[in-house]
Specification:
This protein has helices at residues 12-15, 29-36, 61-89, 101-104, 110-130, 148-155, 160-169, 179-190; strands spanning 2-5, 20-23, 43-46, 92-97, 135-142, 201-204. The chain has 210 residues and is of the alpha/beta class.
Length: 210
């Protein structure tokens, strides 16, 4: 098992559990290839996201390109690296973390919504192209999940308490999602128990999409 992140220090606890780790910028094609090209992976989870705040009129071309480079191009690159060995083995599961925003769009999240919609489309295309080769590809579309990244965004606002309360209020269950809940769904999609599921987009949103 291998885990990669741009911040290798954040992977230290995984190293302690015997998981191979690598500090890799997923926008660096060569670095990704060095880590993934020669391995075989029964399952791969693509969990990358950068959120640009603003409408399309507030999104500069460089910000638009950065959003797609991180959120979409990384999924493209990793899929191209792992698919050949999966096809040779005639088994494999790719799980892409998209977003509820990619399903319905979100106000002031034009670039992010568009990029996650692209991840959903790529997921369905990979499924259609390689299902007969034994490969499955599914996407998880969470609403807001209480991650360190979200916490940083909340703390950067003028009134973090009010911002958190606003975010929570968007979820009828009365709370944000947890990383463990997303991980549990990803583990199911990676496992043989979901062998009949491919091309699906599973919404995990605490009722926010209803």
């Amino acid at each position: 098992m291998t885990a990669v992140d741009i911040d290798a220090n954040k992977l230290s606890t995984l190293s302690d559990e015997g998981i191979e780790t690598a500090g890799v910028d997923v926008t660096d094609s060569e670095a990704l290839a060095q880590v993934l090209r020669n391995g075989h992976y029964d399952a791969v989870v693509n969990c990358v996201g950068w959120v640009h705040h603003g409408t399309i009129l507030q999104c500069e071309p460089a910000e638009w390109r950065r959003t797609f480079q991180l959120n979409v191009d990384s999924v493209y690159e990793i899929a191209r690296l792992v698919l050949p060995s999966m096809i040779a083995a005639r088994r494999g599961s790719i799980v892409n973390i998209a977003s509820l925003a990619g399903q319905r769009g979100a106000a002031n999240r034009a670039a992010y919504s568009a990029s996650k919609a692209a991840v959903v489309g790529l997921t369905k295309s990979i499924s259609a192209d390689f299902a007969a080769s034994g490969i499955r590809c599914n996407a998880i579309c969470p609403a807001m999940v209480d991650t360190p990244s979200l916490e940083e965004r909340i703390e950067a606002t003028p009134d973090p308490s009010a911002t958190r309360a606003l975010f929570v209020s968007r979820h009828p269950v009365g709370r944000l999602g947890s990383p463990e809940e997303v991980a549990a769904l990803a583990a199911y999609l990676a496992a043989d128990e979901s062998a009949f599921m491919t091309g699906a987009t599973l919404v995990l949103d605490g009722g926010a999409g209803t």
